[in-house]
Amino acid sequence: MTIEFDYPLTAEINRNVAAALTEDVGAGDLTASLVPGERRVKATVISREAGVLCGTAWFDECVRRCDPTATVTWHGADGDRIAPNQLLCEIEGNGRALLTAERSALNFLQLLSAVASKARIYADAIAGTGAQVVDTRKTLPGLRIAQKYAVRAGGGGNHRLALWDAILIKENHIHAAGGIAQAMAAAQQVAGQAGERCKFIQIEVESLDELHQALNAGATMILLDNFGLDTMREASRINAGRAILEASGNVTLETIRGIAETGVDRISVGALTKDVKALDLSMRFVG
Questions:
Q1: Widest CA span in the chain
Q2: What is the pLDDT of residues 256-283, one digit of tens each?
Q3: How many whole angstroms separate alpha carbon 117 and alpha carbon 54?
């Protein structure tokens, strides 16, 4: 399947993989030296549990850097649902090199598949409501872009990538600026100076009164911080489609459907990238 993602990935994959192999291999893989240097082997990767596949390009780059002559044949693509005991790929290459690449390659594949799988679960939970689940900046240091790509592979959406590509006005910004109207005015000036780099301005509100103030100040994206369901429904009524409404705070798999049914447009969930358990995948030599 085709995954739409706004950030160029090639340089990021190269950076991620270089860092991972430097960390893991260092001056050289001592244990892999037990294998005859000329031996060619075949290996497979299979899934041990259901989920969504993601991270194939990171896996390929780990293998390629350790053995440029190796081949990886995939039987699935990023974003595909996978089942237990499913054959994901077949690899052929130098035995020493594949042993060296194995852990880093699987680390990427297991982590990114876990993020995609969680995003798919949350996206499925609100299917048909018109709301979208989106990620946050609560990511693993150094792997933000990879994890946000995985969220897209799982059917979720991306919030701002970082501090440099959008403005999110929160409580402390409002307090320091002197109020919602003042903060919005300052944000519009900053966004104008940043040009295309600033993709949007969003402001956080904590009450219906603050929602009114934000709308009156021209807000087009508003974050409802820890609103109850009844208050969210009233916020959607007041908003009447004028701004994109996003719900945030204490969202769980058990509560997300009810939140989506209040009429909000987006629901941000830090757990998509923060609370992930690696998907159980296994690589085995077969010849």
A1: 72
A2: 999 999 999 999 999 999 999 999 999 9
A3: 9
Q: Which residue is associated with the tokens 């299917």?
A: 127
- 1 pLDDT above the threshold of 80: no
For residue 11 the two structure tokens come to 């340089």
**Is the CB of residue 222 less than 8 Å from the CB of residue 244?**
yes
Q: Does pTM surpass 0.85?
A: yes
Distance CA 209, CA 197 (A): 31
Residues with catalytic roles: 103, 138, 170, 204, 225
Give buried/exposed letters for 208-242 (b at 16+ CB in 10 A, else e): eebbebbbebebebbbbbebeeeebebbbeebeee
What does the buried/exposed string (b/e) look like for 107-140 if buried means 16 or more CB atoms within 10 Å of the residue's CB?
Answer: bbbbbbbbbbbbbbbbbebbeebebbbbbbbebe
Residue of 228, 236, 234 lying closest to 266 (CA atoms): 236
| Residue among 92, 54, 55, 58 at smallest CA distance from 73 | 92
